[in-house]
Amino acid sequence: MADVSHEAVNEVLKAYQDPYWNTDPLSAGWVRVLEVEGGAVRVGIELPYPARGLAAGMAQVLENQLLGIDGVESASVDVTWFVEAVKPAGQNEPLPGVKNVIAVASGKGGVGKSTTAVNLALALSAEGARVGVLDADIYGPSMGMMLGVPAGTRPALLDEKTMKPVEAQGLQVMSMAFLVDEKQAMVWRGPMATGALIQMLGQTHWDNLDYLVVDMPPGTGDIQLTLAQKVPVSGSIIVTTPQDIALLDCKRGIEMFRKVDIPVLGVVENMSIHICSQCGHHEALFGEGGGERIAEEYGVELLGQLPLHKTIREQADGGLPTVAAEPESEVALIYRDIARRTAANLAKRMAEEAQAAPEIIVKTWE
What we know:
By secondary structure, the protein is an alpha/beta fold. It is built from 12 helices and 15 strands. It has helices at residues 6-15, 25-28, 52-67, 113-126, 143-146, 190-202, 222-230, 244-259, 290-298, 310-317, 322-325, 330-356; strands spanning 31-37, 40-47, 74-81, 98-105, 131-135, 156-157, 163-164, 166-168, 171-175, 209-215, 235-240, 264-269, 274-275, 282-283, 302-305. The strands form 4 sheets. Strands 8-9-5-10-4-11-12-15 form an 8-stranded mixed β-sheet, with helices on both faces. Strand 11, helix 8 (244-259) and strand 12 form a beta-alpha-beta unit. The chain is globular. The mean pLDDT is 85.
């Protein structure tokens, strides 16, 4: 039996391109275990982003390629992941119990931002991350309803200043809807609403989260700007529709985050194509290519495009969003791809910043 070539094993690993980083696991430094004993090859890969939906396929492809090497009788590839904390922009201190904060925002209302935020959170959880959701829309909180939390639910108090988030569908959730009567109108000026939100955020006992998804209020006003400056946001996502007027507001949202030095991880184009529930006909009701044009203009990624389909709305209104209601559906798989892209972009940003950091050399003079 011929000895298995380590170089041949390395070549197989280098030939595999990660779909989100566009690099191979060996060059990226993700290979944690590489053992060759006789005709047996064992590889352990640790991705920097949650990827349950990708791991099995990646392992199978690599195992098949390794078995094609002369002398290899058995091949075992184990793909896992570990989420690092990305240093937030600015001087804001990280939130206790939270590694990364992802803000989901839109320049205007009515583009499906909250639906995107809740499905993104569920998709990140489905990919293997610990996830929380903060409903930052003080005036119109909707996360409780979308996640099927019964009306009147209140967070448990851990002490006089700390609340435990509500558990719903595997997520840790906090919303103003849990603190006030659902019919009570929040007639507050901007600073009052912002203060209540910051207090709610800081006094919630988040339990070891990889990601806290913040459903931001629509628009780019005082509340949004103050929140972006006060909360340690690791990155942001902008939700838009292909409609021209929505794209104008999308640009304002991107500019807002850039002014406060929060990286935009990408754009999600919602309601891209209308799918008729009767005949399946596809029609671009709100125009075409808007998300692509915005992403190209600002040098950010188009994370995904979602159809305008009544089941997405019905499932969110019914308290069981699409990723939870139909986890194997086409729409749910799009959300999961968006989740992996978002997490991968965050991890890539951290890696790029680490490489860009200046090397400090200390010399001792005699």
